[in-house]
Amino acid sequence: xxxxxxxxxxxxxxxxxxxxxxxxxxxxxxxxxxxxxxxxxxxxxxxxxxxxxxxxxxxxxxxxxxxxxxxxxxxxxxxxxxxxxxxxxxxxxxxxxxxxxxxxxxxxxxxxxxxxxxxxxxxxxxxxxxxxxxxxxxxxxxxxxxxxxxxxxxxxxxxxxxxxxxxxxxxxxxxxxxxxxxxxxxxxxxxxxxxxxxxxxxxxxxxxxxxxxxxxxxxxxxxxxxxxxxxx
Length: 232
Hints:
single chain; 232 residues; alpha+beta; 4-stranded mixed sheet; disordered C terminus
């Protein structure tokens, strides 16, 4: 199969919507998840933004209004409850999103990219941990049985920075403006609410029908934090 025909999803370790989409893919559409190419999306720091610009790309960032920020907090609480999930909303203090996302690329080199995402999402959204902290990245490495230094130092690795630029160029070329974002052939789907339609397109004729909702719970993530504008 041609690489541009492989269905793919763009995810961010920052976004609660990406976390919930990952959870739905894993629990409701595992056959679809197994067929996807995983592509990371993150807000670049000054160095990554310069490298991206020099490569002819641009990052589609739009500042978030206060009204949208408050809506997202409410919306995520609702979605978490619907899934019977428990969450602790994290607090990001001067985050550098290259730290977890370049560490993901390093883990992927070891064949552990999916497991890295799974643990990072758990630490961030279930435990409220700061995944931009080197200590948290080291903890992920230990849990996965990977070398701590390789993952912790990924943010300072020139080769991984170069590959990060390539990843951000793919964001630019695919016209991704928020996450989760799904692509199947020429069809694009933005947001967690489009996941059933994306799954159906991947499965083909007679494919996915939205499963029954899982039991609701009274869990509440609480907290107050924004994230990249345009997240679906």
